[in-house]
Amino acid sequence: MFQVGDTNEIDMSVKVFAVQRSLSTFYHNEGSFNKKEYQIFQQQAVKPLPETGVQSAFCHEVPAIYVRSIKIQGVSASSVLHAGSASLIRGDARLKHIRQIQSPRSQSPAKNI
After folding, report:
1. Distance CA 76, CA 14 (A)
2. Please, are residues 76 and 93 in contact by the beta-carbon 8 Å criterion?
3. CA 8-57-48 angle, 5° bins
4. Cys staple from 41: which of 32, 35, 93, 97, with CB 3.0 to 4.6 Å?
5. Residue 100 and residue 26 in contact, taking contact as beta carbons nearer than 8 Å
6. In degrees, to the nearest 5, what angle opens at C-alpha 39 toward C-alphas 11 and 1?
């Protein structure tokens, strides 16, 4: 997400299940996903406690934002590039990445993973 300007609320959420293999071997029973098998998708997100007792005051003599350039190294799931103010920002990313990598000497199309 790319947001320029003031925002009241930003709410981001993503759940990702990824399988990476060194060989392109796929089986007939793949493609079904039961999120109950993976606890990371069942747990409640940990939310920080709200700030209490903090008082602040702002005076914007020049209420404009000037940006000459932005160099973005990378943006991922459930992320935001935001220039401006926001009252509330919530983000939650759940990622289960399974890597099935074979050693170099066993990488032949005839072998199973």
Report:
1. 10
2. yes
3. 50
4. 35
5. no
6. 20
105: alpha, beta or left? (left if phi > 0; alpha if psi -120 to 50): alpha
Closest CA to 1 of 85, 77, 66, 65: 77
User: Taking a C-beta distance cutoff of 8 angstroms, is the pair 113, 21 a contact?
Assistant: yes
Q: Tell me the residue type at 73.
A: Q
pTM equals: 0.57
Dihedrals φ, ψ of 46, to 5°?
A: -80, 120
Q: How far is CA 89 from the centre of its chain?
A: 14
38: DSSP letter: -
How far, CA to CA in Å, does 94 sit from each of 11, 78, 91, 103? 14, 9, 10, 28
User: Which phi-psi region, left, alpha or beta, contains residue 36 (left: φ > 0; alpha: ψ -120 to 50)?
Assistant: alpha
Write out pLDDT tens, residues 64-111: 777 788 888 887 777 888 888 888 888 888 888 888 888 777 655 555
**Residue in the block written with tokens 């796929």:** 26
